[in-house]
Design a protein that fits this description.
This protein is of the alpha+beta class and 171 residues long. It contains seven helices and seven strands, in the order αααβββαβββαβαα. It has one domain. It has a five-stranded antiparallel beta sheet. It has a two-stranded antiparallel sheet with strand order 4-5. Strand 2 and strand 3 form a beta hairpin. Helix 1 packs antiparallel against helix 3. The radius of gyration is 16 Å and the shape is globular.
């Protein structure tokens, strides 16, 4: 179920999707339209869909080394605030980041323009290993690092800035 929902959300190129003007508020397409125009988030829609499927999901809030982040930058304001999901499967929590799994920002300083998003599925963000996720995402609550020995935010800042390809190539 989790895999199906992740794939359904992440393989859609919202730049190419045209939505009807009138969509009912209980339609998944209503929420996809909201994501396209910045009114909804991937993780909230993922949580909603998982709830309909009888799955437990927790939205994790924290900071991330997202577009515009440079190595060693402090996290002073909300610019790098982020959210992602953790889903309960067979008694264990696993990370799922549908947003990062669906799209990334092209090299630009204007992150508000939806046309700057490049849609391409990145499987790395499905059931991501906590040991890898911590390089990019730092939760507000240390227990949601899902690590045996949680890191301090200072250690998180000192970690290199890497993305999924670093791990895909075993670097």
């Amino acid at each position: 179920k989790v895999r199906s929902l992740f794939r359904w959300l992440t393989v859609k190129n919202l730049n190419k999707m045209i939505f009807k003007e009138q969509l009912t508020e209980d339609s998944p397409y209503y929420f996809l339209k909201g994501i396209k125009y910045g009114l909804e988030s991937y993780h909230e829609l993922f949580k909603r869909l998982c709830s309909y499927a009888g799955l437990s999901v927790k939205i994790i809030r924290g900071i991330s080394k997202s577009a515009g982040y440079k190595p060693g930058m402090p996290f002073k304001d909300s610019k790098f605030s982020n959210s992602w999901a953790s889903v309960l499967i067979d008694g264990d929590w696993h990370f799922v980041d549908c947003h990062w799994g669906a799209r990334h920002v092209n090299n630009t300083e204007d992150y508000s323009d939806p046309e700057k998003f490049c849609y391409s599925l990145d499987e790395f963000y499905f059931l991501t290993n906590p040991e890898d996720m911590i390089y990019m995402h730092y939760p507000d609550e240390p227990e949601w690092q899902l690590l045996e020995d949680p890191l301090s935010v200072e250690t998180f800042v000192e970690l290199p800035v890497v993305k999924s390809h670093f791990f895909w190539y075993g670097l």
